[in-house]
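Exam revision sheet. Question 4 asks you to relate a sequence to its structure. Input first:
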Amino acid sequence: MKNYLCYRGNYDFFLEKFKQYIYPVTSTFSYCLMPNHFHFLVRIKSNAELPNLLGSEVTEDFLSQQFSNFFNSYSKAINKQEGRKGSLFIRPFKRKKIENLQYLRKVIHYIHFNPVEAKLCETPEQYKYSSYKSLISNSKTLLDRDETISWFDDLENFIYVHKHAPEQTGIDLTFL
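Answer key, structure tokens:
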């Protein structure tokens, strides 16, 4: 099966579609686009945080539709680009509820260390299509950088953790 997410232009297009459909309704903390899958760590915004997108409260149906629009928009563009038809994604997206700080840290580290584990790079900083470099920089970003870094106490600790594999940091990722 051909892998459509792996083309650099498609990565950029995928992130633009995320920005269009998902960013307005979520706080985004980390992401990583891999050749055969992707990860986003997001929190759905409260109705008080959301722009008045519907003229009333934003419902779960509306939020589900935003994700559907995101995936469908990307799929249609790739199908047109490649002259293909049908589903691009194998199954619906998965989501996991994060209920404590330890698990949250593990998920962020997992997301950023995924390309290292897959041998696509040697360090998270070398991988272009993850949020790691945006989080450690001072450049403008749509990520909730300050909140993400605060979960690791400070930037220095965030960087330290990401320089080491899970078994070296004491972060156990076996249950992800």
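Marking note for examiners. The chain has one domain: 8-169.
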